[in-house]
């Protein structure tokens, strides 16, 4: 059996290792388009901040792949997948045959359409190389514009603030982290960012950049002008699947997969940021482009490629981050659609700067937001993922001394 895995991120790496554990003899080829050994992508902004060294980014080294007889090819971008002939062709001219293929190519950052995007010192923040490039020019940077108030944008803004850079953040929606928190949490996060010295421009995005060779200013669509020596664009990402022939597999938000992470073509699987799998909470396919989901899907895809029939239980959006001294934990359905049978419970303590929100549908917890009081958050996320019914008074879940074993079947 010849296994080929496109993408040397955490999903592809764990899939390769899982196949090898279950199948000691088949060939495994792992293709990575970046020149780096597999690394922890969520730590990219920590590298920019100077909190960690490049060596601390790396999660696997050459010896790890040699010891498991996994062929690792770095700097190999896939140009085409020939489904009929079961071959992968790279832009560097390699042609690799496969019996089973995993597409774990991750995602590419989304750029914005604005005049002047081709000026120097404008970066999309997602990969190691961008962090290195930004760090190289930082000695000459006094002020920066971060476009996008999502997870990557906030982490990049914090990293740059710690490096002594003045920051303006532009977010086209009404508050930061609009896809993962609710308006009340968004207001708290806004105040915390402003207290850190980050100037917010909510409801605004860039219409044009100005400068002579390198960016020096940005014009926002609210009519304001922002002086900047650096621009970080963090407005989202899309699955990196341009090498797939049209119609070969179904691609919507991502590559659609079944409960075994297999596409509509037998023997071809997808995992990680490129895969659109069932979301446990929403009960529809969705790309949940977060590290824990990539871990789960990589292992499950590897097991299925090795011949085991293992169902993937489904993904769930969840995020944990710190913004200054503010701890934020979210998961599941945070902003339920109006008019449906959802019950929302809130617990707020302005003096202690805490806020907790639970979203229920019947007896089942469907979503949560927690600011600062995040203890027991992992248990609550597990309740959502495992659909544990809450048959007691729901407000008791806010009790710091609540014994969650009471919810387990007797």
Can you give a write-up of this model?
The longest helix is centred in the last third of the chain and has 15 residues, at 291-305. The protein is globular. The chain is built from nine helices and 26 strands. α1 (10-22) runs parallel beside α8 (291-305). By secondary structure, the protein is of the alpha/beta class.
What is the number of strand segments?
26
The strands making up the biggest β-sheet line up spatially as 3-2-1-7-19
How many whole angstroms does the radius of gyration measure?
Answer: 22 Å
Please work out how many helical segments DSSP would assign: 9
Strand content: 25-35%
Which percent bin holds the helix content?
10-25%
The dominant shape is globular
Measured between the Cα atoms of the first and last residue, the distance is 46 Å
Provide the CATH superfamily of the largest domain.
FAD/NAD(P)-binding domain
The CATH topology of the largest domain comes to FAD/NAD(P)-binding domain
Overall CATH architecture of the largest domain: 3-Layer(bba) Sandwich
Rounded average pLDDT: 94
Q: Major beta sheet, specifics? A: 5 strands, parallel
What structural category do the secondary elements indicate? alpha/beta
What is the CATH class name of the largest domain? Alpha Beta
When the domains are counted, the total is 3
* Uncertain residue ranges: none
């Amino acid at each position: 059996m010849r296994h080929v895995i496109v993408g040397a991120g955490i999903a592809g790496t764990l899939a390769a290792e899982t196949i090898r554990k279950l199948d000691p003899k088949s060939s495994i080829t792992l293709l990575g388009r970046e020149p780096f050994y597999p690394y922890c992508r969520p730590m990219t902004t920590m590298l920019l901040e100077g909190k960690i060294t490049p060596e601390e980014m790396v999660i696997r080294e050459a010896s790890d792949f040699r010891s498991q007889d996994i062929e690792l090819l770095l700097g190999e971008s896939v140009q085409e997948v020939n489904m009929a002939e079961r071959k992968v062709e790279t832009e560097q001219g390699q042609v690799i045959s496969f019996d089973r293929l995993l597409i774990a190519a991750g995602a590419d950052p989304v750029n914005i359409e604005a005049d002047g995007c081709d000026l120097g010192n404008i970066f999309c923040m997602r990969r190691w190389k961008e962090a290195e490039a930004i760090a190289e020019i930082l000695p000459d940077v006094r002020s920066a514009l971060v476009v996008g108030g999502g997870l990557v944008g906030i982490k990049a803004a914090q990293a740059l603030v710690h490096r002594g850079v003045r920051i303006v953040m532009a977010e086209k929606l009404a508050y930061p982290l609009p896809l993962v928190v609710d308006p009340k949490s968004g207001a708290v996060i806004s105040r915390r960012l402003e207290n850190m010295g980050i100037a917010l421009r909510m409801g605004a995005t860039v219409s044009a950049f100005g400068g002579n060779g390198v960016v020096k200013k940005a014009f926002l669509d609210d009519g304001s002008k922002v002086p900047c020596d650096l621009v970080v664009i963090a407005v989202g990402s899309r699955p990196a699947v341009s090498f797939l022939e049209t119609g070969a597999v179904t691609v919507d938000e991502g590559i659609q997969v079944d409960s075994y992470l297999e596409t509509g073509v037998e023997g071809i699987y997808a995992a990680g940021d490129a895969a659109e799998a069932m979301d446990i909470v929403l009960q529809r396919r969705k790309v949940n482009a977060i590290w824990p989901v990539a871990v789960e899907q990589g292992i499950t895809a590897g097991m299925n490629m090795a011949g085991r029939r293992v169902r993937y239980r489904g993904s769930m959006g969840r995020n944990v981050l710190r913004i200054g001294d503010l701890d934020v934990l979210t998961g599941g359905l945070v902003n339920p659609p109006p008019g449906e049978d959802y019950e929302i419970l809130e617990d707020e303590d302005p003096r202690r700067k805490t806020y907790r929100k639970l979203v229920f549908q019947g007896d089942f917890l469907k979503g949560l937001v927690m600011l600062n009081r995040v203890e027991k958050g992992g248990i609550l996320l597990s309740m959502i993922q495992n659909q544990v019914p809450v048959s007691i008074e729901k407000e008791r879940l806010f009790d710091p001394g609540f014994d969650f074993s009471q919810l387990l079947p007797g």
